[in-house]
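Hello forum,

I keep getting stuck at the same step: I have a sequence, I want structure tokens, and every attempt I make locally crashes halfway through. Rather than fight my setup again tonight, could one of you with a working pipeline run this one for me? It's a single chain of 1217 residues.
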Amino acid sequence: MPNSRIKISYAAPTNFLASDQWIQIRTALDQHLPLKMLNWKTTDGTVRTIQELEVDFVSLESLKEESSSQIPSSLLDRPLMNMYFFACEDNETYRLTFKKMVKDWQTSISTKRNQEWLVVLVVRPDARTTGTSRIFAMRAPVLDKVKADINIDKKKDRCVELAWPVAADDITAWTEFISKLKEGITSSFESAVAARQEEIAKSESQQQVPGWNFCTYFILKESLATSFEGIGLLEEALQHYQELEASFFQALREKNLPWFGNVGGTAPGDDSRSLLDILQKPYRELILNNTITLFDFRIYLFACQMILLAKQERLLDVITQSQYFIISFARSLRENERSFTTFFLESWIYSASLNIIEQCDEAYAQFTSLHKSSSFIVQYSAKRGELVQLSRNQLDKIGIHLGFLPNKPPFSLSWHTSEEKVTPRFANGETVNSKITREELVSTLRNQNSFDSLYVSTTQRAIEYYVEGKRRKFALKLHGDLAALDHCRSQLQTAHQTFASLPAHYSSSKHKWPPLEAFMLARALDSHTRLGIGKDNAWLDSAVAFLGLCSQADDHPNIIAEGAILPEEVVITPTQRKEYIVSLLEEVRTVANGSDREIHKTNHSSFSMAPTTGIARLAGDRDGSFLDITVTNLLPCDIKLDRLEIELSGEDEQPFTFVGSESLCASGENHITFFCSDTHAGTFHITSGSVWLSKIRFEWVYNSAEGLSPQSPHVSTPLSGQYPLRLPSTQQQLVRIPPDKDALNMRLALPRSIQWDSDPTVMLEVHTGRNVLQDVIIHITSPVGVKFKMEAAELLQDSLGSSSSTSFSADSNQISLRNLKTQQAISFSVPHSAPPAGGVLLANISASYQVIDIVSATAQPRRNYRALRKISTAVPLQVSVMDSFRGETLLSKFTVSATTHLQVRILDTKLEGGTGLRISSPLKTSRQAPVIVTPQRQAHFVYQLTSENARYDEERETLYLHVLYRTLREEIEARLEREISQVFKGRYESGEKVKSKLIEQLAADASWVQLYMHTQELVLDPPSLGKNDGELEEGMGEVIQRLKTPLTDSDDAASERVQRLVIPVDLPFLHILCAVQIHLNADLDSIYAGQPVPIRVEIATSFHWGSIATTKKVEYSMRYVVQEMVTDWLVSGHKRGDFVATDDSTHSVELTVVPLHHGELALPMVVISALSAAKGSDGQNQELPSIETYHVHAAQRILVLPRGGRTTFVVGMGGDM
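Reply #2:
Ran it on my machine without issues. Output:
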């Protein structure tokens, strides 16, 4: 082992070394050791910190003189620091006594290479100084003289003063001394390392020179590594050993190893020695003598590295690299296996693995800091388990060779390479001549019981480590090995229990291991048969799981090659494998027939199901559709399936089923047609598929949320015996069912007339299509919490048409219709609760209906209808109103604006309601086009309401504004559907393709919008169809031509999409209407700026729009204020005053106004307000009345002329004035 302590020599005068003072100083100095936190700088400038450094103080006289040995030694074998102590108080004593001593010591030390030195002057402090100042008092002249004499190199100060006995009590007295001591040690070590590195580099450069010796080079470089290790720089030491290993491997590759003896491994005990004990052989001497073997050299070099890792508490690295070394070195040794004794490699691997664990456990017990890390404990236990399993594998090899174990899985799996697979050498009683020294292995060579005992204990030890290291899958495998051993020893009951319990662990997605699961299942079935136990559900589970693995045998050929997929007595040939599976299937069917319940297996890998094309076919003559499914039988034989189903789901997440009849599925792909009698249309995804084998249901769950990769999709199975199931890509899992226009259909829409002050309502339209229906039972629900009031459903007027046999009924849960004919359409309204925020109502429509066969007049099985409908409950319009009173007339201006991005065509508006009102609006000419409302453009509609009689506050009435509108989107959709249906009669698919192309064209180019908004002509460029189809292109051209015809109000297709919005509008109420009129008492043609103009202000009041029902005369106290327009007029007179207002009365005020400038000026405005409630109203209303004022002269302008006059100016023309 390298020296882990550095040496420091000391010298002093003889009388000083014999004094008590030196003994005290030496004792105090030991208290400051070991040295801490030394900084060492590498050649590349990196600073390494030495946390702690042990020091040995030795007398200079006790050291031997440096020898001229050619054997490199550690840099720590010689002192890194030399110190000289002496005590002196005055210059004269120093000059006469100590100067020569110091100089002689300096001269002797200077001859030593790479060693620093330090002179320590011991002084007594000044008795007058106290505290910290005593430590280093004023520098004595003696110290200056010493420095002048010995500091030859002015850059380094090699003299320090130590105050004594102050330093005995004050730790700070040592600060400078310790600092210079550290500095000298690191400086000396740096120079020594640099010198040794030069020697190493010189040796490396001479590798090609004859006579160069790798062993000598190794000792030289190792001396530097041991020096780093001794001083505590473990990383640097490890790096040098790694460089030595790299140099060795390079020489090994070049086969340039004349310095080593034979391979080695033949010495007694080589098979069982500890791998990390470098003292068990004189490895260094063997290297120096060039007699070391490759076996010993590899072990020594590896052990040195692992010891350094262990000193750094890197036990995980030690155990990991040890396992790799054992496996790789054993592979190299196997090339020379004939030179070893029998079972040498097995014994060496076995011993090395267990010895590594033992030595690491000893180190782990010392490293208490690792005990707190749970993650370390888990990883460390797992690595120990791997090493114990490696040693157990050697028992497999020994047992097979001795005939104690069969040369079959799982025991034969311990051979790592095909070269290791050999014929057992001693299975027939041959003599075993082995010189292995591992005691427990020696005892097993001829004693099977000892072998079994060691095999079980070693395996259980590995299991314990794996369990502690959370390697559950590996622990389970070893349990299977123990069960296989029980099976070999004919302990069938124990083996069967273990084999039957293990497959479930291997099949979980976290611990999936198909080859081992197959082996366990095969052994479970075999032991079950040998025990003669009756075949029950447990056997059935194992057999079905085993069939799943049989279907995947091609993906795991090693299973069959090693005999793990079938019981060991079955010969593994394709024919016999097929026969075995056929017989196993028959047994499975027989046992399943006797079961009293259905047995459910999820995601079994023997079969797979996928849509063939992804597009369903309509039945044509009846409601329903066909779907072609590819059922793949992955077993090598035909299988009779009693029933097949595939389940689809749409946006509403409500599943429906396609059913296939009994089928004989051949091995490989089988194309089977499934049928669904329910009515569905749209795109759906497959949620599950099922097939029945007797009472066994195999189900596959397709979860689209898992995000399966289209390239290699897999679904993990939760049951035993399952491989990842290969499924088609996620695109192929989608199925599109085309709409059947002749099938039963239900559509949910907003009613044609929407009234804002009534409960929200939807309209349900039922179309029977081709069917004669005996009855239909309809349910409507909403996933967003909207409650449909089914009991309040009402049949819309004229919905039944001429059919008198059809009946309609509704209750709180459903709507029922009976006796419906073909091609009959029935509509009814269904009230519902408030829709959700956002304006989109989701509704699930489900119906059960029974069709009457027209030919036989018999009822067919009930069918189901299901659809998810989205309805936009947001009205695309909003209306605001502004009212203006003028005597007995009310002018109401309605502003219609868009609430969405859609363009809306306003076809008509109408205001209705009110008693005693005459409502009129501007005349609409025939040339006037309907108004288009967009988010940027509003529409205005004005109505004049004339009331012949007074309106009383008790007679509040509501008017209704009817707005007839249609969105341009609905209008265009209706036109497209009409034109396409007329052009492509009976060619639904072609019409749908043209429709989709035209819609894409409309969305891609918006240039048609403006023209259509003004002329209702839809002008489009023919889109490309992607292939030459003359008939389709001709039909599209005709459709585009027909769309250019302007839309008329009588167009049936457009009129179907017209909506009516009924908006309640309260008739406005006003207590007092004031009309202000200003009369000018002057000639309007001769009004000049600055001229006073007399005026009369008349205020007429009317209670026509807000009369109070009373027998008394009603009057109000009012106040007027004439607003003074300081930039236009000056007003003189009673600009503010009070008056009493009565119905149909007039109040007049005389004022004078002065125009301030010329031009056209507006007359001043008058503000009128109420001062009190109505008088004479019998206390019915004590609130202030509502007032509106309008100026009769609001549009009048007065022309003010500029004032005339003459002004004389005198202009100087030059000359004397």
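The radius of gyration is 54 Å. If your local run keeps crashing, start a new thread with the error log.
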